[in-house]
Amino acid sequence: DETGDQKYLKYARKAGDFLVISTDDNGVWDKNLLRGLQHTINARCAWALLELDRRVPGARYAWIAEQNLKWVLKQQTDNGWFRNGSSKPRVLPNTHFIAYTCRGLIESHRLTGNRDYLEAARKTADRMRRMFDERATLYAFWDHNWDNRGKYIRWATGRYVCLTGNVQMSLVWMKLFEEYGDQSDRDSAFRMLDQVKALQSVSSPKPGIRGGVKGSFPIFGWYSTFKYPNWAAKFLADALMLKIKLQGSP
Hints:
It contains 8 helices and 2 strands. By secondary structure, the chain is mostly helical. Strands 1-2 form a two-stranded antiparallel ribbon. Helix 5 (about 115-135) crosses helix 6. The model is unreliable at about 150-155 (pLDDT under 50).
């Protein structure tokens, strides 16, 4: 779209065709999966396929995307938690993965108009926003009762946060504010974004760290331990640009 260079569309189609053939008889992804696991995080892949279908109609991209989004909706429980929300066996979903799922659903609603996707994302995001508002923080891992202290996550009971997931949730809440106009979504998003901004490295003499965002805070937390993942900085930039759009300043 930005360059008009057809080579990018060519390779997008190759990726899309790969996703189309990586499905079962119902069109749900069951092949070539990370660690062989089906997971709701791939709602983001459905979003990408829907974008591709707008540029290359008639190639089953939209149908495959929607079959997988239907599968994602079936994984959601009444309290907003998602089964199969992690990409690792016997590991509970963290805020990073939950936000991936919500964002994929929100953007898929934007492209299809299907309110089921938007309402599912809202159910989950509202629950997480209330927890953040009550505690002024949002911890990393969550079990099916939205408890981060359960017996199944003994190794994750330390009070640390996934900064990547937190800044992604600020994006999700801002996106929901655009859809519903609920001031609570915007306010919580801005508070969360301020927390992440305060922890960004802006003065390190090391160029590989300066401007970066830790995977976890404290940095020894279990998500991207002792790392500054590049996608954390990417999501922070996305969130700052959306905040400028909504408020006029970062």
